[in-house]
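stage 2 :: seqdesign
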């Protein structure tokens, strides 16, 4: 087998010929961009407390506009060429990722204030990810390191159309083992917006930590943002996935979903039928967003709804596009939540978010491809030839 080089790390540290029994080799074919968590065996759970990040882990934060992301962070290994299988790929680019972490970094890249709460392994990759947060000015006070589990790895096959297939190494990975007593509740209560997905609901102890974090944010008057990130193969069944995703549905103030998720959650409903979409609009919801890839997005509030066109680009890797969109809209809402009541201003903010997503698919990897505010504004206002 040829030697694979991934960024600055030669791939000799992972033995493909004789994998360790502790490494679980699982392949899933999905069209989504973020990391997912299969159920670990109870015998493989570690009842240990992760340690906090070395030093103070603090980045500059503006508390009045702080967005705190909760969930998973991992390493994506992305092929340097598209349209080949993982086995046939000549090399991989090492790229930090994980949906909630992508959102946190995306907001910081756009000039906003963000923090990340989650758990990685007490290993080289875990500390590399901590450095990524620091380098991007993301507050990492809530990050923990697990001495008994590894940082999750995901190998990504890029098809010729930029869509992906994932292969995960985890058994279990550290993000699944975050415990409630490891949460930084002070950081959660400082947030203006608390953002999360559904992946952390799949297994314990992270599920209990997730529920406790959401409750603390809700009790503190923090706005709750939810992106379910459906990963159907990782749940015990379709019914359990639907039940799990909907179990916290009515606590959220802002929800972002895809067309596929609409059909799934409504048991086959037409994702383009406004009446079907409105079935997912609960009484306390302020904003429901539906992403449509290159076509843009739709928005629904109690008083109005509409569609905002996307920016057409040549897709190289769609990993992280939805997270970049979320970062784009949350960065705007963190500055002014009244945008939700003003349709014209909301549409402008969604145009900005659509461009964030579009620019991200033009490069490989999630976090490496997240755009700066300057890049987004340049794309928004460049002359049409």
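stage 2 :: out
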């Amino acid at each position: 087998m040829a030697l694979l080089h991934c960024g600055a790390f030669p791939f000799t540290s992972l033995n493909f010929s004789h994998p360790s029994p502790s490494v679980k080799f699982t392949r899933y074919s999905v069209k989504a961009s973020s990391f997912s968590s299969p159920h670990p065996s109870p015998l493989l759970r570690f009842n240990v407390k992760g340690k906090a990040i070395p030093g103070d882990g603090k980045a500059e934060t503006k508390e009045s506009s702080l967005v705190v992301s909760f969930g998973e962070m991992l390493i994506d290994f992305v092929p340097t060429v598209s349209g080949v299988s993982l086995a046939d790929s000549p090399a991989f680019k090492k790229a930090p990722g994980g949906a909630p972490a992508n959102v946190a970094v995306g907001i910081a890249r756009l000039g906003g204030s963000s923090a990340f709460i989650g758990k990685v392994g007490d290993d080289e990759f875990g500390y590399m990810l901590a450095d990524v947060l620091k380098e991007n000015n993301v507050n990492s006070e809530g990050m923990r390191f697990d001495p008994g589990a590894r940082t999750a790895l995901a190998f990504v096959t890029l098809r010729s159309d930029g869509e992906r297939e994932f292969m995960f190494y985890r058994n279990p990975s550290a993000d699944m083992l975050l415990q409630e007593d490891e949460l930084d509740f002070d950081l959660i209560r400082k947030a203006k917006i608390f953002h999360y997905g559904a992946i952390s609901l799949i297994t314990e102890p992270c599920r209990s930590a997730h529920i406790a974090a959401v409750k603390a944010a809700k009790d503190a008057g923090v706005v709750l943002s939810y992106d379910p990130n459906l990963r159907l193969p990782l749940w015990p069944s379709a019914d359990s996935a639907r039940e799990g995703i909907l179990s916290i549905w009515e606590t959220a103030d802002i929800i972002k979903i895809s067309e596929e998720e609409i059909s799934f959650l409504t048991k086959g409903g037409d994702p383009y039928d406004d009446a079907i979409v409105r079935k997912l609009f609960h009484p306390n919801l302020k904003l429901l967003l539906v992403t449509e890839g290159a076509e843009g997005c739709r928005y629904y509030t109690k008083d109005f709804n509409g569609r905002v066109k996307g920016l057409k680009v040549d897709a190289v890797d769609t990993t992280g596009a939805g997270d970049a969109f979320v970062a784009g809209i949350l960065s705007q809402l963190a500055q002014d939540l009244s945008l939700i009541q003003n349709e014209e201003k909301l549409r402008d903010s969604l145009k900005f978010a659509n461009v964030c997503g579009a620019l991200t698919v033009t490069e490989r990897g999630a976090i490496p491809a997240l755009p700066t505010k300057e890049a987004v504004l340049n794309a928004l206002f460049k002359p049409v030839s």
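stage 3 :: structure notes
- Residues 1-48 have pLDDT under 50 and may be disordered.
- The chain has one domain: 66-72+98-152+172-381.
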